[in-house]
Amino acid sequence: MIKILDFYGSWCTPCKQLQPILTEIAREKDVEIVPVDVEKEPDTANQYGIRGIPALIFLQDDEMVSRLDGIHTKEEILDVLRDLGV
To answer: Annotated active-site positions, please?
Structure first.
């Protein structure tokens, strides 16, 4: 199963715009969305080199296989998942 780490901040407007898109994708695909608040989990953000939010890290077997920085459309996120065989 693919996990998507969703790096966000509670004050981040683009992050809030991304939330319903990720919720839809989680309903439609066999993926797990893992929200990561960069203010509460700075070590995790540093581990993945997060310098701006929103950022999505795609994990397969706990290894990073893809990444999207910034705001993206549902179709762009689904393209990444298709490339990963989901």
So the answer is: 12, 15
